[in-house]
Every structure is written in structure tokens, then in C-alpha cells.
Design the sequence.
């Protein structure tokens, strides 16, 4: 049963009974005596309209004046760039005013409306169909939008500051921005850095200034994938954010510290959206399964799906905190079981378990961004696994990088670094081995060079480790950077080169002892500048001395 408000008495009435209720309601309003009031000599009461039925019909059918340049979404006004374009009556199906045909014979029932809506929505991606429009329906990010969450307070009080939403794909950044659009009284404009340019932004800024002058109405600008704008393009937002012409809401999957202009970043609050937990994904997938089954039954007339607990858990696990990915996997399974199923006589439900899903989703669902955080996170995990002498973990991360499309030369370069940084003097063969691996990748490429990379990774992981050179080098560079007198100390004359007669006459190279001329090459000779004296950076200690309390 679907309830709507009567436009005359404002009571909630079943949509199937609205026409009968309207007849009764309008008769009562016409026959009711006017309220008594003292006569006013200068005013007269307005005459009641002679055509009440016409106004009711107009309300129910969503008729509107051709002069209107905006439409209602829920209880707020939503403006677009093309304000001159009015919506047709077909486009108003999803508004707060339901379309009801005034003729009883042509009246549509609630199931027919639901079926029509389902058919229209069936063409949309499942993630878009399930996108929540309020904080009550939003799943995840309890630290931001849960009870007492800082962002929840901003949204409910309609005091949203300029902010950046940073999180992995499918964590709800765009959804959160659209929830702000429904909750705010400000004008809300949505742009995407992938499809809109600087000229579009300038036009929005100009509209925002005019809107503020004429109506005192503020403008919120949402930029999806804001990191796609280069830092020069991002500069255009600075004066408008600083002056308060607009409130900027940006969404990015990349680390804002690296991808966003520091001046812009200092004017925005950064909120980190975490990957969704398995329980949160379970709630989303369960709700999506209900919508999917309703569409299967009413629109496509095929048996519904029943996923057991392990099947839903399998989708949640391989989605890795990405709600959009989880819904895409469910859609893939839905499409597969449209035709690929067999039922026993008398049964109308397709039972789906985790093993069947593995067969459907044959390729491992892997998320790897060659230029984003996954790129740096995975190579970091690989390096630390080699340093920790865990050859199996090193191969695992190497495999993830190669399967994800990482540049093999990038991996080979990192292993050359590892050979000196982590193995060092305890196995001098690792450095030429790593260089040979780099050359092998250059010569033969992938897939033939995959074993060369794995061979090198295992050799480095199993080699004895020494960070003596690495630590000594870091200590030296720290002093060179922080102590000007240390970096500029005069080189002893006997160590200086003397290619000319003049240099020899002023003492260059004088007194230098050529080591090969002496027994065992040992001589008494100063090598450091006199100002800093003898120093020792290499201690002969290859690793630390602190025991791990967890061992």
C-alpha cells in the first residue's frame, strides 16, 4: 500500500483511493460555512475559486507553468546548467508528487507504477540504483557520519566547509557529496575533472557570484576526481575558496598531499574514508540481492537467486572494501544466472554457493593502480619482505605487481637498490646479479623475464643482510646537510691534485705517500680535513642489537 498526501486536507491516503477521497474532500470544503470574522471596512474576503477540481487535477498530474526553470527534488529545489529546459511529465515520475490519472477507468494501480519504475531502473547499474540519498541509508564511515561524527554535524547543520573526501574507490565519496546536495539549502553544482574543464569552472564561479548578489544564496561546487586537475589548474579555485564565493567539495582516490596544490589543501579540511568492513559490505550486498530478485521476478520473469552465507562472504572478501566492486560482482552473477541455470521440478529459486561464484568469476578480482597508492604500497611491501628474508612473501608481492601490469623495469631498479641497501658487503654478488636481471628484462621483456625477476627476488631475500653501508651513508649525508663547516672543510694539500707546475710550487700533493710503494700499503697519513679530524662512519656492525620481544 502506497500513501500520498491529499492536496486539499493534507491527510495521508492510499493512492488507489485518492480519487474517491478527493470527491468527498472537495464537497465538504465547498459546503462548509465560512468562518465568522469581524467585517473589515477596507478589505474583502477573496472569492473562492469556481474550479477546485481543476487545481486538484493540476497538482496530481504535475502540471506546471512554462516559465519555471527548476524542478523539485524531494523538498528542495535542484538547479541545472540548462535551467531553461523544463521537464516533461514522464520525467516527473520520481518527484514527490505522484502522477494520477483523473479518469477512474484509466487509473493505474500501485503495482503498475512499481513495475514501470523497476523497468526504467533495470537499465541502470546496480550501484546507481542503490545509491542512498540520506545519512540514514548511508553505510560505513561511522567515524565521520555516525552519531557524533564531525561530518554528520556539518551536514545536519547545513554548515559544510570546503573539504576533500579521500578514500579508495567504492567507499562512498560521491554518495556523501550527493547527500550534502539533498540536505543543503545552498545551490549545489556537480562537476567532474574527467569531463569538465577550466572554462566550466569559471562559468560556475560567475554564476555563484551572481546568485549570491541576487538571492544571497551560497553555492557548493563538487569536483569528482579532483586530482585529475593538474596543480596549475587547481590554482583557479584558490581565490574563490578563500573569498567564500563557493564552498569546494572534492573527491579523490589519490593521496592529497601528493596530488593537490598545498595552497588549496591548506584551505580545505581533509576527511579520510576507510574501506568498508565485511559486515558493512554484507549489508549492502544483502539489500542489493533483494532489489535484484525483485527485478528478476517482476521484469525479467526468471527465478530469483538465493545466496548462502558463504557466497555473500565470498563476494565481500574479493571486493576488498569496495562497495561498487561488490555490486558489480553481484550484477555479473545475476547476468550469468539469467540463462545458465537448471531447476528441479516444482522449485522456483536458484541456490547459489561460493563454489558456483568462483566458476562465474573466473579471473581473480584484483585492484592495482600503477600510478596510485597501490603502486607505492605494493613495492613497499615487496621491499620489506626481501629485507625481512621472507622469500615467499617477496614472490607474492612480485606476482601481484606483474599481474596488475606494473612496469617490470621499475621492479628491477628497486632490486638493484636492495642489493646495496639491505644486502651490502655480506654478499657482493647480489649487486651484479640485480643489474643482470635488469638487463634481462630489457632484452627479453615479459612474459619471458618473469622468472628472472623471481630468481633475483629470491636470491636477495635469502642473502645475508647488512645495512652498515646504508646507515653510514645516511649519517654522513645528515652531517653534510646540517653542518656547513663540515661540508666546506679544506681538503689537505697533500691529497690535492697537482697537474700544473704552479700547483706543485704552492704545495699541492707535497708529502703524499703513495700506498703501493710501502709494505702492505700501510702508511701514517691524514685523510680527513684538519678542521674535523679523524672520523668513523663504518662501525663493522651489520644489523641492530635490539631483540624482538615478540620472538
Sequence:
Amino acid at each position: 500500500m502506497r500513501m500520498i498526501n491529499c492536496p486539499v486536507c493534507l491527510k495521508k491516503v492510499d493512492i488507489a483511493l485518492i480519487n474517491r477521497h478527493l470527491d468527498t474532500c472537495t464537497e465538504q470544503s465547498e459546503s462548509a460555512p465560512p468562518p465568522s470574522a469581524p467585517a473589515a471596512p477596507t478589505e474583502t474576503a477573496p472569492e473562492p475559486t469556481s474550479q477546485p477540481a481543476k487545481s486538484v487535477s493540476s497538482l496530481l498530474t504535475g502540471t506546471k507553468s512554462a516559465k519555471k526553470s527548476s524542478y523539485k527534488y524531494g523538498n528542495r529545489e535542484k538547479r541545472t546548467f540548462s535551467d531553461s529546459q523544463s521537464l516533461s511529465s514522464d520525467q516527473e515520475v520520481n518527484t514527490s508528487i505522484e502522477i494520477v490519472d483523473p479518469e477512474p477507468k484509466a487509473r493505474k494501480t500501485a503495482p503498475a507504477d512499481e513495475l514501470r519504475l523497476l523497468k526504467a531502473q533495470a537499465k541502470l547499474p546496480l550501484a546507481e540504483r542503490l545509491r542512498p540519498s540520506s545519512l540514514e541509508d548511508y553505510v560505513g564511515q561511522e567515524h565521520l557520519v555516525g552519531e557524533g561524527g564531525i561530518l554528520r554535524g556539518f551536514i545536519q547543520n547545513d554548515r559544510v566547509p570546503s573539504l576533500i573526501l579521500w578514500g579508495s574507490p567504492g567507499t562512498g565519496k560521491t554518495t556523501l557529496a550527493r547527500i550534502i546536495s539533498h540536505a543543503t539549502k545552498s545551490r549545489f553544482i556537480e562537476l567532474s575533472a574527467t569531463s569538465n574543464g577550466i572554462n566550466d569552472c569559471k562559468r560556475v564561479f560567475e554564476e555563484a557570484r551572481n546568485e549570491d548578489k541576487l538571492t544571497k544564496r551560497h553555492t557548493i561546487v563538487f569536483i569528482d576526481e579532483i586530482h585529475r586537475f593538474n596543480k596549475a589548474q587547481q590554482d583557479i579555485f584558490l581565490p574563490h575558496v578563500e573569498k567564500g564565493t563557493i564552498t569546494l567539495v572534492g573527491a579523490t582516490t589519490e593521496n592529497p598531499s601528493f596530488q593537490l596544490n598545498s595552497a588549496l589543501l591548506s584551505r580545505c579540511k581533509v576527511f579520510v574514508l576507510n574501506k568498508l568492513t565485511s559486515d558493512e559490505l554484507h549489508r549492502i550486498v544483502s539489500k542489493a540481492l533483494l532489489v535484484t530478485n525483485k527485478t528478476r521476478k517482476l521484469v525479467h520473469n526468471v527465478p530469483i537467486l538465493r545466496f548462502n552465507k558463504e557466497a555473500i562472504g565470498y563476494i565481500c572478501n574479493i571486493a576488498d572494501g569496495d562497495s561498487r566492486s561488490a555490486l558489480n560482482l553481484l550484477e555479473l552473477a545475476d547476468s550469468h544466472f539469467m540463462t545458465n541455470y537448471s531447476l528441479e521440478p516444482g522449485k522456483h529459486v536458484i541456490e547459489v554457493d561460493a563454489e558456483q561464484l568462483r566458476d562465474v568469476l573466473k579471473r581473480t578480482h584484483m585492484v592495482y593502480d600503477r600510478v596510485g597508492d597501490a603502486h607505492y604500497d605494493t613495492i613497499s611491501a615487496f621491499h620489506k619482505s626481501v629485507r625481512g628474508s621472507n622469500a615467499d612473501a617477496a614472490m607474492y608481492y612480485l606476482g601481484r605487481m606483474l599481474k596488475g601490469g606494473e612496469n617490470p623495469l621499475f621492479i628491477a631498479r628497486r632490486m638493484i637498490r636492495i642489493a646495496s641497501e639491505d644486502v651490502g658487503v655480506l654478499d657482493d654478488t647480489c649487486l651484479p646479479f640485480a643489474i643482470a636481471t635488469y638487463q634481462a628484462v630489457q632484452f627479453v621483456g615479459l612474459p619471458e623475464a618473469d622468472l628472472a625477476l623471481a630468481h633475483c627476488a629470491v636470491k636477495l631475500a635469502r642473502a645475508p643482510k647488512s645495512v652498515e653501508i646504508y646507515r653510514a651513508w645516511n649519517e654522513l649525508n645528515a652531517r653534510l646537510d646540517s653542518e656547513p663547516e663540515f661540508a666546506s672543510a679544506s681538503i689537505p694539500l697533500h691529497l690535492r691534485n697537482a697537474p700544473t707546475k704552479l700547483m706543485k710550487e704552492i704545495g699541492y700533493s707535497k708529502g703524499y705517500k703513495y700506498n703501493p710503494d710501502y709494505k702492505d700499503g700501510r702508511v701514517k697519513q691524514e685523510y680527513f680535513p684538519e678542521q674535523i679530524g679523524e672520523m668513523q662512519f663504518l662501525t663493522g656492525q651489520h644489523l641492530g642489537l635490539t631483540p624482538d620481544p615478540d620472538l
Confidence is low (pLDDT under 50) at residues 34-109. The radius of gyration is 36 Å. The CA atoms of residues 8 and 104 lie 19 Å apart.
